[in-house]
Structures are given as structure tokens and as C-alpha cells.
Amino acid sequence: MSSASDVLFVHALSPVHVGSGSSVDIVDLPLIREHATGFPLIPGSSMKGALRAWVGTLDDAELEDEVFGSRKGADDTAENATFAGAVAFSDARLLLLPVRSSRGVFAMATCAIALRRFQRILAETTPKDPVVQALGRLLVKAGELTDDGSALVAPKSLLAGSARWSLEDLEAKGVENADVGEVGLFLAKKLLDGEDDYLTGRLCVLPDEVFQYFTEQATEVVARIRIDPKRRTVQRGGLWNEENLPAETVLVGVTHSFGSRRPEPAPRRSGREILDALWAKDVHRLHTFGGKETVGHGRVRLSRVQGEVAS
Q1: Three-state secondary-structure class, residue 126
Q2: What is the pTM of this model?
Q3: What is the pLDDT of residues 143-188, one digit of tens each?
Q4: DSSP letters of 8-43?
Q5: Pick from 61, 146, 283, 295: most CB atoms within 10 A?
């Protein structure tokens, strides 16, 4: 039975906190991060859990079991055997990070490492898409960036111009590149229904080390308190700092299906049929990932690039 993969974009519409637990550092509740790069990510287990909870509200137990795996019944007999889910969710890794800018209010920053990962994913799912070749050319130029403050931007970008501008506490100078514009148009179409002036005009490619610096310094850290309901003052130990991915952050991952894993003689669907059946349930609507839902955090919008992977 054939398998299939889709590229999955996670676009943060509000601050998002997917934490790694408590810390003894300045930030009490930090984001979960990759060990090697330090880039924030959303684990596949978090996305799977959030989507299963949402699908569970649709009154479609058959789809929920097929996609995410059946729950163990009271009697695990041959007729009521458990089985694994048909869809695998990868971690969603950082692609675009909004960074405060003296031009255009903010920039959508990325780097060669993030773009290389993105290109690999697209090359596996939609190898004939022209954006794959555009990314390849862009990566060559991104590898030539030095620490002189140069940043690749789209032609006629809000960030272009001869003068330098500020990104947080660093200076940058825009170098126009047509492939940045092509990649920006592709992302705008998938994420923002074609609002290319909003995304493409702010897209910039930074050196890896500069981008890594911003992943540590340009996240949102907010102070939270817990009030004693009787005394109306802060409870002892009720003050903490919490780190969030800022709104407009974009992460990218993969959903993959080998096809139905229901035991025979149940109907068995291919990987493409299962991924399309899941997406047909309006998966692109708003979801909540991570914690702090009751204070408006964690709101994300999902979008996908449909692709095929040989079995």
C-alpha cells in the first residue's frame, strides 16, 4: 500500500509556549529547543496530541482511531485489538522568526540552516516545484554571507536600500536577491492566501550565527503572577518568567502516512487517502498548541503542501 507525505506549516497567530519544564536560569519556564542548534521547536508529540483532541470533538471516532491509533478497550481480543495510528507527525522546526526592525516594523528572519532543512522537505514531497531550485540558488548566496551585517532581501523589499537599518540591537544592510522574492511568494501563498506584500517585503536571510542569536534574544519573555484570592496579593512563589515564541513565527514539519493499520478485514486506505481525509476535516482552521490557552496564547493556523512519497 502506497505511502504519502505532506509538508505542514505552523503559523503562530499569538504567542506560543511549548515548554521544556522548569529551569534554574533567568527564565523559569523556557521553550523547548533543539540540543545542537538551540532553535525552538514544537515536538511532534505535542502536535499529534493537540490535533487528536480536536478531531475527538468532531464525532468521528473511526477517523480518530485510524489516524491516531485506537485506544485500548476493556477486552483486548482479536475482534477488539488495538492498532497503531496511520499518521506520523515530525517535529515542527523553526523557519521564520519575526524580529523587531527599524524598517517595516519587523522582519521575518531566517538563515541557511533553516532554509536547507526546508529545501530537503520540499525536495522529498514536491521535487518538481520551482521553489526547490530557487531555494538551492538562495542557499549558495546565503552561504556567502559574512558578519558585516549583510542580509538577503527581496527586490523592492521594505528592508532594501543603501542605508543600514536596525534589527533589534544589531545593524543590517539589505542585499536584493530575486530568489528571496520567489521563496517569499511561495510562503505567502501557502500561509497568507497570497498576502505577499506582508511577508515577502519583510523576508530576510541572515548568517546562521546571527539568526541563532535572535532565536535566543528575540523571543518573548513575560512575567506571570499568581494572586492569593483572599489577600489579593502575589502568592509566595507565585512570580515567574515565561518564554514564548512571538506571534507570526513560522515552523515547518512533515506528516507521513504508510496507510491504514487497521487489522483485517477492515477497509484499508492508502497513505494519501488518509492524509486527505484528515485535511478534509478543516484541519487548516485555528488550533491551540502548548499551554496558556486561557490567556489567549498558543493560537496557530495550519497549512500544508501536498506531496507524494514512494512506498
Answers
A1: coil
A2: 0.89
A3: 999 878 899 999 989 998 778 899 998 999 999 999 999 999 999 9
A4: EEEEESS-B--B----SSSSSBPBPB-TTT--BEE-
A5: 283
